[in-house]
Amino acid sequence: MHSTHQHSEGCFRHLFEELEDAVVKFELVDGEPIIVHPNSAFVDVFGYDSETVIGEPLNELIVPATRREEAAQFDQRTQDGESNAAIVKRMTDEGERKFVYRGIPYKDRYGFAIYSDITDELQRERHLEVLHRVLRHNLRNDLTVVLGMATDIIESTDEEHTRRAAQKIKQKASDLSQLSDEANTIEKVLGETVTVGPVELKPLVNDVIADCNARFESASITTEVPAGLCVSANDKLQIVVRSLLDNAIRHNDTSNPQATVTATELDSTVELEVVDNGPGIPKAEQRLITGDQEITPLNHGSGLGLWLVKWIVDAYGGHLDIETSKSDGSIVRIRLTQE
Questions:
Q1: Is 336 in contact with 199 (CB distance < 8 Å)?
Q2: Average pLDDT in the 47-59 region?
Q3: What is the per-residue pLDDT across 185-202, written as a single tens digit (0 to 9) for each?
Q4: How many CB atoms lie within 10 A of CB 284?
Q5: Burial letters for 88-108: b for 16+ Cβ neighbours within 10 Å, e otherwise?
Q6: What CATH number corresponds to the domain at position 312?
Q7: From CA 184, how far away is CA 78, in angstroms rounded?
C-alpha cells in the first residue's frame, strides 16, 4: 500500500513538472494564496526564480492591480471548496498577457492554479476577424458595382456576344455575392449557443418557399409537409431549408427548375427531404460534406451553403445525407428529433 502511494505521488510530481502550462500549488493564509511550489513552466512564463517565489503572495506577483478584486473572488471560491475557470489577465516578465485560468481546491486550505497562455491565439483571431470583416465589406460593395454595370450592359447592347459575356459576368458576381452572404451567416451561426425547442415545419417551409418563388420566378417548388409536425430545432432551421432550396434552384441548369420538399415521420424522428431535377451535387462534394472524405487544399468543395446546412443540423443532433437520384437530380435528407 505504501509503495503504491509512493508511486502515485511520483507520477503526480512528474506530471506537475512536465506540464507545458504554468501551474502553482498554493496555501490559503487568511484568504490570501501563498506560493508553496511552482512548476518549471510557471517559472518560464512569469519570469520568477522558483526558490525566491516560495512563500510569496501569488496575487501580488502576477495579478494586475486592476484585477485584484476579481482574484479575491476566485480565492474565496477556492476557500469554499469550489473550482474556478475564466479568461484572465496576468503580469509576466514580458508584460500583461491573457490566460485561461483554472483554480482547483485541494484539501482544507490548499489549491492549484493553472495558467494556459492564449494571448497569441486571441490576437490572431482578432486579426482574422478584422481581415474578414474588411474583405466582406469591400467584396460586397465591389460586387454591387459589378452587378449594376453588367445589368446596364445587358440592357443596352445589341451585340449578342457582348450580352452573353455580360450575363456570365453577372452570374459569377451573383455567385460571389451569395458566397459572401453565406460566409457571414456561418460566422454568426457558429458564434451562437444552440438552444432548441419545438419548431413546426409546415409554416416555416411555406415561408421559405414564398421567398424562393419571389427570387426565382421560373422555378416550380412543391411541398408535402403535414400540418402540426414539429421537430427539435430553432429559428436557424429556416436557414437550412432556404439553403437547400437555394442550392436546388440556383445551380439548376434546366429550363424548368423543380424542387420538392417533403417531411415524413420516422419513429421518434422526422426526415425532411429536398429533391430537385438539376445536375446533381458532385460525388466528391457529397463525400466532403458528409465527412466521408478529408478536406485538402485540392478537395474543399465549391460553396458554403451545404456546409452551413451540415453544421446547423449537427448542432441539433441531427443527420445529413446526400445522394444523386436516378434522374440525375439531387436528394438531400436531414433527420431531426421529433417534438
A1: no
A2: 89
A3: 777 777 677 788 999 999
A4: 15
A5: bbbbbeeeebbbebbbbbeee
A6: 3.30.565.10
A7: 41
Within the chain, what is the greatest distance between any pair of CA atoms?
A: 96
Mark whether 311 and 202 lie in a shared domain: yes
Q: Scan for cell 454595370, then name that residue.
A: 149
Residue from 15, 13, 11, 59 nearest 35 by CA = 59
Asked if 52 and 74 sit in the same domain, the reply is yes
The reply to whether 219 and 269 lie within a common domain is: yes
| DSSP code of residue 266 | E
Q: How many CB atoms lie within 10 A of CB 326?
A: 6
What is the radius of gyration, based on Cα positions, of the chain?
A: 29
Here the cell at position 216 is 426565382
Report residue 328 CA to chain centroid gap: 32
Contacts of 185 by beta carbon, 8 Å cutoff, 6+ apart:
239, 308
Q: pLDDT digit string (tens) for 150-164? A: 889 988 888 889 988
The three cell numbers of residue 84 are: 474556478
Output the average pLDDT for the chain. 83
Q: Whole-angstrom Cα distance, residue 54 to residue 36?
A: 5
Total number of domains constituting the chain: 3
Q: Which range marks the domain in which residue 28 is found?
A: 2-117
Cell, residue 320: 445529413
| Exposed / middle / buried, residue 222 (Cβ in 10 Å: 0-12, 13-18, 19+) | exposed
Domain boundary among 68, 86, 117: 117
